[in-house]
User: Fold this.
Amino acid sequence: MRMVSRLVLALTVLVAIHLAAPVAAPTPAMAQRAAPAANATDAREIRRVIRTQLDALRRDDAKTAFEQAAPSIQHRYATPDFFLKIVKRHYTPVYKAKAATFGRLAMWRGSLTQEVAIVAEDGQRYTAFYPMRKLPGGAWRIAGCMILKDSSI
Assistant:
């Protein structure tokens, strides 16, 4: 059941990102809830944060990987070592990923979400979606990760 819920969530993210096109102007209420669109500097910083975390996971550098997570994630997992343990167990494709290629950066549920094509350590392909949070000081942090196995191969 949990796997089905994950798949439904991942498919929802995939559809939302690929169908995100300006069809109509947002209502004032929507505009208040939506995060601001990313400029080129924000987009570069978002990619840098994700790349830093992926590189840290490849090296088993729990501290650096944990530092890239948003405060809500850090609070949930409490320590770098526990965070790494969770990533190894539940987010295996991003742990020691052999390759990562950045795709679209789009709004999803009020958060800028970065799409990343992942080649896992075992060679299988996935798409990871990283919702991002901009901290009050302006730094970007990872607020989650949803992974969908690529079935096109």
Summary: The chain has six helices and five strands. Confidence is low (pLDDT under 50) at residues 1-35. The longest helix spans residues 40-58.
